[in-house]
């Protein structure tokens, strides 16, 4: 069971119980709800046709900043060099439940 969601301009394939790092988004009381669901698959190779009201719920595990990425600009023969560092903010979330067409798929308790 998995779903494809869109958040922060990117698409992610998620299943109940997965943890992933997404771009910083607003969350309330440590819970995030993704309503922009692009596809849901309950079985291998079969997709749900009707996605109205489909949503994915998740809990926030933590926030942070990613690894530093170095950006280097160089123009030859002009004596121009510029180096810049960048660290992207992220929110780490754990997918709890996928809801579609009245069916609920939850993470298995360990």
From TrEMBL:
| This protein's record includes keyword Cytoplasm | no
A Gene Ontology BP annotation from the UniProt entry: translation
Highest taxon of the lineage: Bacteria
An example of a Pfam family matching this protein is: Ribosomal_L21p
Keywords from UniProt, A to Z, are: Ribonucleoprotein, Ribosomal protein, RNA-binding, rRNA-binding
User: Recorded GO terms, molecular function?
Assistant: rRNA binding; structural constituent of ribosome
**InterPro entries given for it?**
bL21-like, bL21-like_sf, Ribosomal_bL21
GO cellular component assignments: cytoplasm; ribonucleoprotein complex; ribosome
For whether the record's keyword set contains Ribonucleoprotein, the answer is yes
The role this protein plays is:
This protein binds to 23S rRNA in the presence of protein L20.
* Similarity section: Belongs to the bacterial ribosomal protein bL21 family.
**NCBIfam families, from UniProt?**
L21
Fetch the HAMAP family from UniProt.
Ribosomal_bL21 (MF_01363)
PANTHER family, A to Z: 50S RIBOSOMAL PROTEIN L21, LARGE RIBOSOMAL SUBUNIT PROTEIN BL21M
Q: How does it assemble?
A: Part of the 50S ribosomal subunit. Contacts protein L20.
Name of the protein in question? Large ribosomal subunit protein bL21
State the organism named in the record: Terriglobus roseus (strain DSM 18391 / NRRL B-41598 / KBS 63)
What is this protein's gene name? rplU
């Amino acid at each position: 069971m998995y779903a494809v969601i869109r958040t922060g301009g990117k698409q992610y394939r998620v299943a109940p119980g997965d943890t992933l790092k997404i771009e910083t988004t607003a969350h309330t009381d440590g819970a995030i709800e993704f309503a922009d669901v692009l596809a849901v698959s309950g079985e291998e190779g079969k997709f749900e046709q009707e996605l109205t009201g489909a949503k994915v719920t998740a809990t926030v595990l933590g926030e942070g900043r990613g690894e530093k990425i170095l950006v280097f600009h160089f123009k030859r023969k002009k004596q121009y060099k510029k180096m810049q560092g960048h660290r992207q903010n992220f929110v780490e979330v754990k997918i709890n439940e996928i809801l579609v067409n009245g069916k609920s798929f939850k993470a298995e308790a360990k």
